[in-house]
From TrEMBL:
The lineage of its organism: Bacteria, Pseudomonadati, Bacteroidota, Flavobacteriia, Flavobacteriales. This is Uncharacterized protein.
Length: 622
Protein backbone atom coordinates (compact mmCIF):
# COMPACT_ATOMS: atom_id res chain seq x y z
CA UNK A 1 0.00 0.00 0.00
CA UNK A 2 2.95 2.32 0.74
CA UNK A 3 5.78 1.44 -1.74
CA UNK A 4 7.93 4.32 -0.56
CA UNK A 5 7.82 3.16 3.04
CA UNK A 6 8.41 -0.47 2.00
CA UNK A 7 11.55 0.52 0.13
CA UNK A 8 12.83 2.26 3.22
CA UNK A 9 12.21 -0.81 5.34
CA UNK A 10 13.97 -2.99 2.75
CA UNK A 11 17.03 -0.70 2.81
CA UNK A 12 16.88 -0.87 6.65
CA UNK A 13 17.62 2.83 6.85
CA UNK A 14 16.79 3.07 10.55
CA UNK A 15 17.87 6.69 10.79
CA UNK A 16 14.86 7.65 8.65
CA UNK A 17 12.41 5.92 10.98
CA UNK A 18 12.68 8.75 13.49
CA UNK A 19 11.93 11.27 10.75
CA UNK A 20 8.94 9.21 9.60
CA UNK A 21 7.57 9.02 13.14
CA UNK A 22 7.83 12.80 13.44
CA UNK A 23 6.06 13.19 10.12
CA UNK A 24 3.27 10.87 11.27
CA UNK A 25 2.75 13.00 14.37
CA UNK A 26 2.56 16.14 12.24
CA UNK A 27 0.17 14.44 9.85
CA UNK A 28 -2.13 13.45 12.73
CA UNK A 29 -2.11 17.03 13.98
CA UNK A 30 -2.96 18.25 10.49
CA UNK A 31 -5.74 15.66 10.29
CA UNK A 32 -7.26 16.90 13.56
CA UNK A 33 -7.03 20.48 12.31
CA UNK A 34 -8.57 19.45 8.98
CA UNK A 35 -11.42 17.68 10.77
CA UNK A 36 -12.15 20.79 12.83
CA UNK A 37 -12.07 23.14 9.84
CA UNK A 38 -14.04 20.83 7.58
CA UNK A 39 -16.73 20.36 10.21
CA UNK A 40 -17.13 24.12 10.62
CA UNK A 41 -17.36 24.56 6.86
CA UNK A 42 -19.70 21.64 6.26
CA UNK A 43 -22.19 22.76 8.89
CA UNK A 44 -23.08 25.72 6.69
CA UNK A 45 -23.44 23.57 3.58
CA UNK A 46 -25.90 20.84 4.48
CA UNK A 47 -26.61 19.40 1.03
CA UNK A 48 -22.94 19.31 0.05
CA UNK A 49 -22.15 17.63 3.36
CA UNK A 50 -24.45 14.70 2.62
CA UNK A 51 -22.86 14.08 -0.80
CA UNK A 52 -19.34 14.52 0.57
CA UNK A 53 -19.97 12.22 3.55
CA UNK A 54 -21.45 9.47 1.35
CA UNK A 55 -18.46 9.70 -0.98
CA UNK A 56 -16.11 9.56 2.00
CA UNK A 57 -17.90 6.46 3.34
CA UNK A 58 -17.63 4.78 -0.07
CA UNK A 59 -13.89 5.48 -0.36
CA UNK A 60 -12.91 4.99 3.29
CA UNK A 61 -11.13 1.70 2.52
CA UNK A 62 -8.91 3.26 -0.15
CA UNK A 63 -6.51 4.82 2.36
CA UNK A 64 -6.04 5.37 6.06
CA UNK A 65 -6.70 9.10 5.91
CA UNK A 66 -10.26 8.63 4.59
CA UNK A 67 -10.93 5.89 7.15
CA UNK A 68 -9.63 8.01 10.05
CA UNK A 69 -11.63 11.04 8.91
CA UNK A 70 -14.84 9.04 8.44
CA UNK A 71 -14.67 7.40 11.87
CA UNK A 72 -14.08 10.71 13.69
CA UNK A 73 -16.93 12.52 11.95
CA UNK A 74 -19.28 9.56 12.42
CA UNK A 75 -18.58 9.53 16.17
CA UNK A 76 -19.23 13.24 16.43
CA UNK A 77 -22.60 12.96 14.74
CA UNK A 78 -23.86 10.66 17.50
CA UNK A 79 -24.01 13.54 19.97
CA UNK A 80 -26.40 15.68 17.95
CA UNK A 81 -30.02 16.15 19.01
CA UNK A 82 -32.47 13.53 17.79
CA UNK A 83 -35.27 14.97 15.71
CA UNK A 84 -38.56 13.10 16.00
CA UNK A 85 -38.60 10.32 13.39
CA UNK A 86 -42.02 10.06 11.74
CA UNK A 87 -41.01 7.53 9.09
CA UNK A 88 -42.65 4.63 10.92
CA UNK A 89 -45.91 6.57 11.11
CA UNK A 90 -45.99 7.77 7.51
CA UNK A 91 -46.83 4.27 6.30
CA UNK A 92 -49.91 4.13 8.53
CA UNK A 93 -50.90 7.80 8.53
CA UNK A 94 -54.66 8.47 8.26
CA UNK A 95 -55.56 4.88 9.13
CA UNK A 96 -58.14 4.31 11.85
CA UNK A 97 -56.98 3.39 15.35
CA UNK A 98 -58.61 0.05 16.10
CA UNK A 99 -57.33 -0.65 19.61
CA UNK A 100 -54.94 1.06 22.04
CA UNK A 101 -52.92 -1.53 23.96
CA UNK A 102 -51.23 -0.13 27.07
CA UNK A 103 -48.45 -2.05 28.84
CA UNK A 104 -47.20 -0.80 32.23
CA UNK A 105 -43.80 -2.12 33.35
CA UNK A 106 -42.20 -2.13 36.79
CA UNK A 107 -39.44 0.43 37.40
CA UNK A 108 -36.67 -2.10 38.09
CA UNK A 109 -35.94 -4.57 35.30
CA UNK A 110 -34.78 -8.03 36.40
CA UNK A 111 -31.62 -9.14 34.58
CA UNK A 112 -32.08 -12.85 33.82
CA UNK A 113 -28.51 -13.13 32.52
CA UNK A 114 -26.81 -11.55 35.54
CA UNK A 115 -25.36 -13.89 38.17
CA UNK A 116 -25.92 -11.31 40.91
CA UNK A 117 -28.93 -12.97 42.52
CA UNK A 118 -28.87 -10.65 45.54
CA UNK A 119 -29.21 -7.61 43.29
CA UNK A 120 -32.12 -9.23 41.43
CA UNK A 121 -33.82 -10.08 44.73
CA UNK A 122 -33.59 -6.45 45.83
CA UNK A 123 -35.12 -5.32 42.53
CA UNK A 124 -37.85 -7.92 42.78
CA UNK A 125 -38.66 -6.79 46.32
CA UNK A 126 -38.87 -3.15 45.21
CA UNK A 127 -41.16 -4.08 42.31
CA UNK A 128 -43.39 -6.01 44.71
CA UNK A 129 -43.99 -2.95 46.88
CA UNK A 130 -44.39 -0.64 43.88
CA UNK A 131 -47.96 0.11 42.79
CA UNK A 132 -48.08 0.31 39.01
CA UNK A 133 -49.68 3.24 37.22
CA UNK A 134 -53.25 2.45 36.22
CA UNK A 135 -53.74 1.91 32.49
CA UNK A 136 -56.64 4.36 32.60
CA UNK A 137 -54.35 7.12 33.88
CA UNK A 138 -51.99 6.67 30.92
CA UNK A 139 -54.93 6.44 28.51
CA UNK A 140 -56.34 9.74 29.85
CA UNK A 141 -53.05 11.49 29.03
CA UNK A 142 -53.19 10.49 25.36
CA UNK A 143 -54.30 13.14 22.87
CA UNK A 144 -55.62 10.44 20.51
CA UNK A 145 -58.39 7.91 21.10
CA UNK A 146 -59.93 4.79 19.67
CA UNK A 147 -61.48 5.26 16.17
CA UNK A 148 -59.42 8.42 15.53
CA UNK A 149 -57.32 8.75 12.40
CA UNK A 150 -53.61 8.29 13.04
CA UNK A 151 -51.83 11.65 13.29
CA UNK A 152 -48.07 11.31 13.79
CA UNK A 153 -47.73 14.78 15.34
CA UNK A 154 -50.45 14.11 17.90
CA UNK A 155 -48.87 10.73 18.75
CA UNK A 156 -45.43 12.27 19.24
CA UNK A 157 -46.91 15.03 21.41
CA UNK A 158 -48.75 12.44 23.52
CA UNK A 159 -45.46 10.64 24.04
CA UNK A 160 -43.84 13.89 25.22
CA UNK A 161 -46.67 14.70 27.64
CA UNK A 162 -46.51 11.26 29.25
CA UNK A 163 -42.71 11.34 29.43
CA UNK A 164 -42.93 14.61 31.37
CA UNK A 165 -44.95 13.01 34.15
CA UNK A 166 -42.82 12.55 37.25
CA UNK A 167 -44.04 8.99 37.78
CA UNK A 168 -43.02 7.87 34.25
CA UNK A 169 -39.45 6.81 33.50
CA UNK A 170 -39.79 6.15 29.76
CA UNK A 171 -42.46 5.61 27.12
CA UNK A 172 -42.61 4.29 23.56
CA UNK A 173 -45.64 4.47 21.26
CA UNK A 174 -45.57 2.38 18.10
CA UNK A 175 -47.98 0.76 15.61
CA UNK A 176 -48.58 -2.98 15.68
CA UNK A 177 -48.32 -4.29 12.13
CA UNK A 178 -48.52 -2.15 9.01
CA UNK A 179 -50.41 -4.21 6.45
CA UNK A 180 -51.27 -1.93 3.55
CA UNK A 181 -54.44 -3.92 2.82
CA UNK A 182 -56.14 -2.94 6.10
CA UNK A 183 -57.70 0.43 6.86
CA UNK A 184 -57.24 0.17 10.64
CA UNK A 185 -54.37 -0.58 12.97
CA UNK A 186 -53.58 -1.15 16.66
CA UNK A 187 -51.39 1.17 18.72
CA UNK A 188 -49.06 -0.12 21.47
CA UNK A 189 -48.18 2.18 24.37
CA UNK A 190 -45.27 0.74 26.36
CA UNK A 191 -44.58 2.57 29.65
CA UNK A 192 -41.86 2.09 32.28
CA UNK A 193 -42.79 3.39 35.73
CA UNK A 194 -40.54 5.34 38.09
CA UNK A 195 -40.26 4.53 41.77
CA UNK A 196 -42.48 7.31 43.10
CA UNK A 197 -41.91 7.39 46.89
CA UNK A 198 -39.01 9.69 47.76
CA UNK A 199 -37.63 11.18 50.99
CA UNK A 200 -35.44 14.27 51.27
CA UNK A 201 -33.46 15.58 54.22
CA UNK A 202 -31.07 18.43 54.90
CA UNK A 203 -29.72 19.92 58.08
CA UNK A 204 -27.58 22.77 59.36
CA UNK A 205 -26.56 24.12 62.74
CA UNK A 206 -29.85 26.01 63.18
CA UNK A 207 -32.48 24.05 61.26
CA UNK A 208 -33.34 20.59 59.96
CA UNK A 209 -35.83 19.78 57.19
CA UNK A 210 -37.41 16.45 56.24
CA UNK A 211 -39.93 15.76 53.47
CA UNK A 212 -41.62 12.59 52.22
CA UNK A 213 -43.25 12.72 48.77
CA UNK A 214 -45.41 10.28 46.82
CA UNK A 215 -45.72 11.24 43.15
CA UNK A 216 -48.08 8.45 42.05
CA UNK A 217 -50.53 7.84 44.88
CA UNK A 218 -52.00 4.32 44.53
CA UNK A 219 -51.13 4.43 40.80
CA UNK A 220 -53.58 7.27 40.03
CA UNK A 221 -50.93 9.88 39.21
CA UNK A 222 -51.83 12.08 42.18
CA UNK A 223 -49.11 13.73 44.26
CA UNK A 224 -48.91 14.15 48.02
CA UNK A 225 -46.18 15.32 50.36
CA UNK A 226 -45.63 16.05 54.06
CA UNK A 227 -42.69 17.91 55.55
CA UNK A 228 -41.32 18.91 58.91
CA UNK A 229 -39.04 21.79 59.88
CA UNK A 230 -37.19 21.81 63.18
CA UNK A 231 -35.44 24.68 64.92
CA UNK A 232 -32.44 22.94 66.46
CA UNK A 233 -31.66 25.79 68.85
CA UNK A 234 -35.19 26.28 70.25
CA UNK A 235 -36.40 22.69 69.75
CA UNK A 236 -39.52 23.88 67.88
CA UNK A 237 -41.23 21.93 65.09
CA UNK A 238 -43.47 23.05 62.23
CA UNK A 239 -44.99 21.10 59.37
CA UNK A 240 -46.58 21.38 55.96
CA UNK A 241 -48.43 19.24 53.46
CA UNK A 242 -49.69 19.36 49.88
CA UNK A 243 -51.92 17.37 47.55
CA UNK A 244 -52.29 17.55 43.76
CA UNK A 245 -54.94 15.79 41.66
CA UNK A 246 -53.75 15.83 38.04
CA UNK A 247 -55.85 15.69 34.87
CA UNK A 248 -59.29 15.77 36.48
CA UNK A 249 -61.90 13.99 34.31
CA UNK A 250 -59.54 13.96 31.29
CA UNK A 251 -59.66 17.79 31.08
CA UNK A 252 -55.97 18.34 31.99
CA UNK A 253 -57.18 20.52 34.86
CA UNK A 254 -54.95 20.17 37.93
CA UNK A 255 -56.31 20.73 41.44
CA UNK A 256 -53.80 21.67 44.16
CA UNK A 257 -54.06 22.38 47.87
CA UNK A 258 -51.19 23.01 50.26
CA UNK A 259 -50.42 24.39 53.70
CA UNK A 260 -47.02 25.45 54.99
CA UNK A 261 -46.06 26.76 58.42
CA UNK A 262 -42.59 28.14 59.04
CA UNK A 263 -40.44 28.15 62.16
CA UNK A 264 -41.22 31.85 62.77
CA UNK A 265 -44.95 30.85 62.81
CA UNK A 266 -45.71 32.54 59.49
CA UNK A 267 -47.88 30.41 57.22
CA UNK A 268 -49.39 30.14 53.75
CA UNK A 269 -52.54 28.31 52.60
CA UNK A 270 -53.25 27.79 48.89
CA UNK A 271 -55.95 26.15 46.83
CA UNK A 272 -55.89 26.29 43.02
CA UNK A 273 -57.39 24.88 39.83
CA UNK A 274 -55.31 25.31 36.71
CA UNK A 275 -54.89 24.25 33.10
CA UNK A 276 -51.97 25.82 31.24
CA UNK A 277 -51.18 25.91 27.53
CA UNK A 278 -49.14 22.74 28.13
CA UNK A 279 -49.23 21.82 24.44
CA UNK A 280 -49.68 23.68 21.17
CA UNK A 281 -52.44 21.23 20.19
CA UNK A 282 -55.01 22.47 22.71
CA UNK A 283 -56.79 25.80 22.49
CA UNK A 284 -57.82 27.02 25.93
CA UNK A 285 -56.46 27.58 29.41
CA UNK A 286 -57.93 28.43 32.79
CA UNK A 287 -56.51 29.19 36.22
CA UNK A 288 -57.79 30.26 39.63
CA UNK A 289 -56.08 30.61 42.99
CA UNK A 290 -57.10 31.50 46.51
CA UNK A 291 -54.33 32.11 49.03
CA UNK A 292 -54.12 33.30 52.61
CA UNK A 293 -50.72 34.44 53.82
CA UNK A 294 -49.32 35.54 57.15
CA UNK A 295 -45.71 36.67 56.84
CA UNK A 296 -42.96 38.19 58.93
CA UNK A 297 -40.45 40.33 57.08
CA UNK A 298 -37.52 42.56 58.03
CA UNK A 299 -38.10 46.13 56.77
CA UNK A 300 -36.01 49.29 56.99
CA UNK A 301 -37.05 52.87 57.73
CA UNK A 302 -35.49 56.01 56.24
CA UNK A 303 -32.59 55.74 58.69
CA UNK A 304 -31.95 52.14 57.53
CA UNK A 305 -32.89 50.81 60.96
CA UNK A 306 -34.29 47.27 60.58
CA UNK A 307 -37.40 45.97 62.31
CA UNK A 308 -39.47 42.79 62.08
CA UNK A 309 -42.89 43.63 60.63
CA UNK A 310 -45.99 41.48 60.04
CA UNK A 311 -48.69 41.41 57.40
CA UNK A 312 -51.64 39.18 56.54
CA UNK A 313 -53.67 39.10 53.35
CA UNK A 314 -56.14 37.16 51.25
CA UNK A 315 -55.20 36.84 47.58
CA UNK A 316 -57.55 35.80 44.79
CA UNK A 317 -56.51 35.27 41.18
CA UNK A 318 -58.37 34.02 38.12
CA UNK A 319 -58.05 34.16 34.37
CA UNK A 320 -57.93 32.24 31.14
CA UNK A 321 -57.12 32.35 27.47
CA UNK A 322 -57.85 31.06 24.00
CA UNK A 323 -55.61 30.20 21.04
CA UNK A 324 -56.33 30.44 17.30
CA UNK A 325 -54.34 28.87 14.49
CA UNK A 326 -52.63 31.24 12.10
CA UNK A 327 -52.71 28.81 9.15
CA UNK A 328 -54.82 25.84 8.07
CA UNK A 329 -51.78 23.92 6.78
CA UNK A 330 -50.81 20.45 8.00
CA UNK A 331 -47.09 20.90 8.63
CA UNK A 332 -45.83 20.92 12.20
CA UNK A 333 -44.88 24.60 12.13
CA UNK A 334 -48.26 25.59 10.67
CA UNK A 335 -50.20 23.58 13.26
CA UNK A 336 -48.19 24.81 16.24
CA UNK A 337 -48.10 28.52 15.33
CA UNK A 338 -50.99 30.24 17.08
CA UNK A 339 -52.26 33.61 18.22
CA UNK A 340 -53.00 33.69 21.94
CA UNK A 341 -55.34 35.93 23.91
CA UNK A 342 -55.24 35.86 27.71
CA UNK A 343 -56.55 37.90 30.63
CA UNK A 344 -55.80 37.84 34.35
CA UNK A 345 -57.39 39.42 37.42
CA UNK A 346 -55.66 39.65 40.83
CA UNK A 347 -57.02 41.12 44.04
CA UNK A 348 -55.21 41.51 47.38
CA UNK A 349 -57.08 42.26 50.60
CA UNK A 350 -54.90 42.97 53.66
CA UNK A 351 -56.04 42.27 57.23
CA UNK A 352 -53.12 44.26 58.65
CA UNK A 353 -49.97 45.79 57.19
CA UNK A 354 -46.52 46.98 58.35
CA UNK A 355 -46.22 50.36 60.07
CA UNK A 356 -46.14 53.40 57.81
CA UNK A 357 -42.60 54.23 59.03
CA UNK A 358 -41.36 51.05 57.34
CA UNK A 359 -43.66 51.15 54.31
CA UNK A 360 -44.09 54.80 53.36
CA UNK A 361 -45.03 53.94 49.74
CA UNK A 362 -47.82 51.63 50.97
CA UNK A 363 -46.59 48.65 48.99
CA UNK A 364 -48.50 46.41 51.40
CA UNK A 365 -51.97 47.80 50.70
CA UNK A 366 -55.18 46.61 49.03
CA UNK A 367 -54.97 46.39 45.26
CA UNK A 368 -56.84 45.17 42.19
CA UNK A 369 -54.91 44.31 39.04
CA UNK A 370 -56.24 43.54 35.57
CA UNK A 371 -53.88 42.43 32.78
CA UNK A 372 -54.50 41.26 29.22
CA UNK A 373 -52.07 40.04 26.57
CA UNK A 374 -52.06 39.12 22.91
CA UNK A 375 -49.22 37.32 21.22
CA UNK A 376 -47.99 34.77 18.75
CA UNK A 377 -46.06 31.63 19.64
CA UNK A 378 -44.66 28.48 18.13
CA UNK A 379 -43.16 25.59 20.07
CA UNK A 380 -41.48 22.35 19.12
CA UNK A 381 -39.64 19.80 21.24
CA UNK A 382 -36.47 18.01 20.20
CA UNK A 383 -35.43 14.74 21.86
CA UNK A 384 -31.94 14.78 23.32
CA UNK A 385 -29.92 12.90 25.92
CA UNK A 386 -27.47 13.87 28.65
CA UNK A 387 -28.70 17.38 29.33
CA UNK A 388 -30.19 17.29 32.82
CA UNK A 389 -30.44 13.49 33.09
CA UNK A 390 -28.03 10.74 32.12
CA UNK A 391 -28.81 8.67 29.03
CA UNK A 392 -32.54 9.42 29.22
CA UNK A 393 -34.49 11.08 26.44
CA UNK A 394 -35.50 14.61 27.35
CA UNK A 395 -37.75 16.99 25.45
CA UNK A 396 -35.79 20.18 24.82
CA UNK A 397 -38.06 23.11 23.84
CA UNK A 398 -37.48 25.21 20.73
CA UNK A 399 -39.58 27.94 19.17
CA UNK A 400 -40.51 31.53 19.91
CA UNK A 401 -42.97 33.67 21.86
CA UNK A 402 -43.79 37.32 21.30
CA UNK A 403 -46.53 39.12 23.17
CA UNK A 404 -47.81 42.53 24.23
CA UNK A 405 -49.30 43.08 27.68
CA UNK A 406 -51.39 45.95 28.97
CA UNK A 407 -53.53 46.57 32.01
CA UNK A 408 -54.33 48.65 35.06
CA UNK A 409 -53.52 48.43 38.74
CA UNK A 410 -55.87 50.11 41.21
CA UNK A 411 -53.99 50.88 44.43
CA UNK A 412 -53.80 53.68 47.02
CA UNK A 413 -56.72 55.51 45.35
CA UNK A 414 -54.83 55.65 42.05
CA UNK A 415 -55.35 53.93 38.69
CA UNK A 416 -52.04 53.25 36.94
CA UNK A 417 -51.58 52.06 33.35
CA UNK A 418 -49.10 49.28 32.59
CA UNK A 419 -47.58 48.38 29.20
CA UNK A 420 -45.08 45.63 28.54
CA UNK A 421 -43.73 43.15 26.03
CA UNK A 422 -41.88 39.83 25.99
CA UNK A 423 -39.82 38.04 23.33
CA UNK A 424 -38.39 34.54 23.69
CA UNK A 425 -36.57 32.36 21.17
CA UNK A 426 -34.80 29.00 21.38
CA UNK A 427 -33.21 26.70 18.82
CA UNK A 428 -30.45 24.16 18.23
CA UNK A 429 -27.48 25.39 16.21
CA UNK A 430 -24.32 23.66 15.06
CA UNK A 431 -22.52 25.10 18.12
CA UNK A 432 -25.18 23.98 20.63
CA UNK A 433 -28.51 25.03 22.11
CA UNK A 434 -29.31 28.71 22.59
CA UNK A 435 -32.33 30.26 24.31
CA UNK A 436 -32.82 34.02 24.69
CA UNK A 437 -35.44 35.99 26.59
CA UNK A 438 -36.14 39.75 26.66
CA UNK A 439 -38.79 41.50 28.76
CA UNK A 440 -39.60 45.18 29.06
CA UNK A 441 -42.39 46.96 30.88
CA UNK A 442 -43.37 50.16 32.63
CA UNK A 443 -46.15 51.84 34.59
CA UNK A 444 -47.44 55.19 33.35
CA UNK A 445 -48.66 57.90 35.67
CA UNK A 446 -49.56 61.39 34.40
CA UNK A 447 -47.83 60.66 31.07
CA UNK A 448 -44.58 59.72 32.81
CA UNK A 449 -42.93 56.33 33.17
CA UNK A 450 -42.72 54.81 36.64
CA UNK A 451 -41.09 51.64 37.96
CA UNK A 452 -39.82 50.63 34.52
CA UNK A 453 -37.95 47.34 34.09
CA UNK A 454 -35.82 45.64 31.45
CA UNK A 455 -34.61 42.05 31.68
CA UNK A 456 -32.56 40.01 29.21
CA UNK A 457 -31.16 36.53 29.71
CA UNK A 458 -29.50 33.81 27.64
CA UNK A 459 -29.22 30.09 28.35
CA UNK A 460 -26.67 28.17 26.30
CA UNK A 461 -25.24 24.68 26.41
CA UNK A 462 -22.75 23.07 24.07
CA UNK A 463 -22.89 19.82 22.19
CA UNK A 464 -21.51 16.82 24.07
CA UNK A 465 -17.75 16.41 24.23
CA UNK A 466 -16.55 12.83 24.63
CA UNK A 467 -13.41 11.85 26.50
CA UNK A 468 -13.27 8.07 26.52
CA UNK A 469 -16.40 6.88 28.34
CA UNK A 470 -16.92 10.27 29.95
CA UNK A 471 -19.10 12.98 28.44
CA UNK A 472 -18.96 16.72 29.16
CA UNK A 473 -21.29 19.60 28.45
CA UNK A 474 -20.75 23.30 29.14
CA UNK A 475 -23.60 25.52 30.38
CA UNK A 476 -23.56 29.33 30.27
CA UNK A 477 -26.26 31.67 31.57
CA UNK A 478 -25.79 35.47 31.64
CA UNK A 479 -28.61 37.81 32.75
CA UNK A 480 -29.04 41.56 33.05
CA UNK A 481 -31.83 43.39 34.88
CA UNK A 482 -32.27 47.17 34.70
CA UNK A 483 -34.69 49.27 36.72
CA UNK A 484 -35.60 52.89 36.02
CA UNK A 485 -37.54 55.33 38.19
CA UNK A 486 -37.90 52.74 40.93
CA UNK A 487 -39.25 53.55 44.41
CA UNK A 488 -36.76 54.70 47.04
CA UNK A 489 -37.27 51.72 49.32
CA UNK A 490 -35.46 48.44 49.92
CA UNK A 491 -38.61 46.59 48.82
CA UNK A 492 -38.12 47.90 45.28
CA UNK A 493 -34.40 47.12 44.98
CA UNK A 494 -32.44 44.23 43.52
CA UNK A 495 -30.11 41.93 45.44
CA UNK A 496 -27.67 39.15 44.64
CA UNK A 497 -29.28 36.83 47.18
CA UNK A 498 -30.99 33.52 46.48
CA UNK A 499 -32.26 32.08 43.22
CA UNK A 500 -32.15 35.39 41.33
CA UNK A 501 -28.51 36.15 42.05
CA UNK A 502 -25.62 34.03 43.31
CA UNK A 503 -26.71 30.82 45.03
CA UNK A 504 -25.54 30.79 48.63
CA UNK A 505 -24.90 34.54 48.67
CA UNK A 506 -26.48 36.39 51.59
CA UNK A 507 -26.34 40.13 52.24
CA UNK A 508 -29.53 42.09 52.94
CA UNK A 509 -27.79 45.48 52.74
CA UNK A 510 -26.21 45.11 49.29
CA UNK A 511 -28.89 46.63 47.02
CA UNK A 512 -29.23 48.28 43.62
CA UNK A 513 -31.58 49.03 40.76
CA UNK A 514 -29.45 47.35 38.08
CA UNK A 515 -27.90 43.90 38.15
CA UNK A 516 -25.67 41.67 36.03
CA UNK A 517 -25.33 37.98 36.86
CA UNK A 518 -23.55 35.25 34.90
CA UNK A 519 -23.17 31.53 35.59
CA UNK A 520 -20.81 28.97 34.06
CA UNK A 521 -21.11 25.27 34.77
CA UNK A 522 -19.04 22.42 33.38
CA UNK A 523 -21.13 19.27 33.76
CA UNK A 524 -19.64 15.81 33.49
CA UNK A 525 -21.62 12.62 32.91
CA UNK A 526 -20.04 9.61 34.60
CA UNK A 527 -20.12 6.24 32.77
CA UNK A 528 -20.69 4.26 35.97
CA UNK A 529 -23.47 3.99 38.52
CA UNK A 530 -24.09 2.33 41.90
CA UNK A 531 -27.54 0.77 42.44
CA UNK A 532 -28.95 3.07 39.78
CA UNK A 533 -27.45 6.21 41.35
CA UNK A 534 -25.14 8.36 39.27
CA UNK A 535 -22.68 10.85 40.73
CA UNK A 536 -21.98 13.38 38.00
CA UNK A 537 -19.25 15.86 38.98
CA UNK A 538 -19.45 19.51 38.00
CA UNK A 539 -17.55 22.78 38.31
CA UNK A 540 -19.39 26.07 38.71
CA UNK A 541 -18.56 29.76 38.64
CA UNK A 542 -21.03 32.56 39.35
CA UNK A 543 -20.42 36.29 39.32
CA UNK A 544 -22.58 39.32 39.83
CA UNK A 545 -22.57 43.10 40.10
CA UNK A 546 -25.08 45.65 41.36
CA UNK A 547 -25.47 49.25 40.29
CA UNK A 548 -27.68 52.25 41.01
CA UNK A 549 -28.03 55.89 39.99
CA UNK A 550 -25.06 56.86 42.20
CA UNK A 551 -22.73 54.02 41.26
CA UNK A 552 -22.29 52.58 37.75
CA UNK A 553 -21.22 49.04 36.89
CA UNK A 554 -17.76 50.37 36.08
CA UNK A 555 -17.23 51.25 39.74
CA UNK A 556 -19.05 48.23 41.19
CA UNK A 557 -17.11 45.27 42.61
CA UNK A 558 -17.44 41.86 40.98
CA UNK A 559 -18.63 39.35 43.58
CA UNK A 560 -17.83 35.73 42.79
CA UNK A 561 -18.54 32.17 43.82
CA UNK A 562 -16.55 29.05 42.88
CA UNK A 563 -18.22 25.68 43.28
CA UNK A 564 -17.45 22.00 42.89
CA UNK A 565 -19.64 19.03 43.63
CA UNK A 566 -21.67 16.06 42.46
CA UNK A 567 -25.18 16.06 41.05
CA UNK A 568 -26.80 12.83 42.20
CA UNK A 569 -29.59 11.29 40.15
CA UNK A 570 -31.29 7.94 39.73
CA UNK A 571 -32.51 6.50 36.45
CA UNK A 572 -35.57 4.88 38.01
CA UNK A 573 -36.65 7.16 40.88
CA UNK A 574 -39.04 10.07 40.40
CA UNK A 575 -37.46 12.58 42.77
CA UNK A 576 -35.49 15.55 41.51
CA UNK A 577 -31.73 15.49 41.27
CA UNK A 578 -29.87 16.71 44.32
CA UNK A 579 -26.28 17.58 45.01
CA UNK A 580 -23.35 17.52 47.35
CA UNK A 581 -21.41 20.71 46.73
CA UNK A 582 -18.78 22.99 48.20
CA UNK A 583 -18.73 26.69 47.37
CA UNK A 584 -16.00 29.24 47.96
CA UNK A 585 -16.79 32.95 48.22
CA UNK A 586 -13.70 35.20 48.08
CA UNK A 587 -15.75 38.03 49.60
CA UNK A 588 -19.26 38.67 50.88
CA UNK A 589 -19.54 42.35 51.90
CA UNK A 590 -20.54 42.73 55.52
CA UNK A 591 -19.92 39.03 56.19
CA UNK A 592 -16.24 38.37 55.57
CA UNK A 593 -13.58 36.95 53.26
CA UNK A 594 -12.73 33.44 52.01
CA UNK A 595 -16.04 31.89 53.07
CA UNK A 596 -16.70 28.18 52.45
CA UNK A 597 -20.28 26.87 52.27
CA UNK A 598 -21.78 23.46 51.56
CA UNK A 599 -24.75 22.76 49.26
CA UNK A 600 -25.00 26.39 48.19
CA UNK A 601 -25.57 25.57 44.50
CA UNK A 602 -28.98 24.34 43.40
CA UNK A 603 -29.26 21.60 40.80
CA UNK A 604 -31.95 23.52 38.88
CA UNK A 605 -29.93 26.68 38.23
CA UNK A 606 -29.92 25.99 34.46
CA UNK A 607 -33.48 24.71 33.99
CA UNK A 608 -35.07 25.61 30.64
CA UNK A 609 -38.36 27.32 29.98
CA UNK A 610 -41.14 24.92 28.95
CA UNK A 611 -42.30 27.40 26.28
CA UNK A 612 -45.90 27.37 27.42
CA UNK A 613 -47.58 30.63 26.54
CA UNK A 614 -47.31 32.57 29.83
CA UNK A 615 -49.92 34.30 31.95
CA UNK A 616 -50.03 38.10 31.56
CA UNK A 617 -47.55 39.50 34.08
CA UNK A 618 -45.24 42.40 34.83
CA UNK A 619 -41.71 42.44 33.41
CA UNK A 620 -39.29 40.39 35.47
CA UNK A 621 -37.58 42.53 38.12
CA UNK A 622 -36.03 40.41 40.87
Amino acid sequence: MYPFLNSIYILKASKYLIIIKMCQIKIKLLIIFAIFCSNQLLLSQKMDTVKWFKKLEKNKKNNRFNQYLFENIRKKNKTKPIIQNNFVWKKVNCKIIRHIIIQINDPFAIDSISKNNFKNRIKDLANTYHIKTKEKIVNNLLLFHKNDEIDSLIINESERIIRNQRFIHEIEIKPIGSDASTDSIDIAVNVVDSWSLSPSFNTSINTSNFQLSENNLLGFGHEIYVNMHKNNTKNENTFGFGYTANNICKTFLNFKVNYQKEIDFSYEKNISLEKNFFTSYQNWSFFSLFSQQYKKIVLYNDLQIPDLQNYKLNLFECGGGYALRVSNGNSESQRTTKIYNMCRFITKDYYFTPNFEYDKYRIFSNENTFLASIGIAQSRFIKNKNVFNFNIYENIPTGYIFNLTSGFIFKNNLSTLYLGSKWTHAAFYHFGYLSANIEIGSFFEQNQTKQSAFNASVTYFTNLFKFGNWQIRQFIKPEITLGFHRLDTNLDKLTLNGNFGISGFSNANLLGTKKIVFNFQTQMYAPWKVWGFRLNPYFNYSGGMLSNSNNSFRHSPLLSEFGIGFIISNDFLSFDTFQISFSFFPKIPGIGYNILKTNAIKSNDFQLSNYEYPKPSFAHYQ
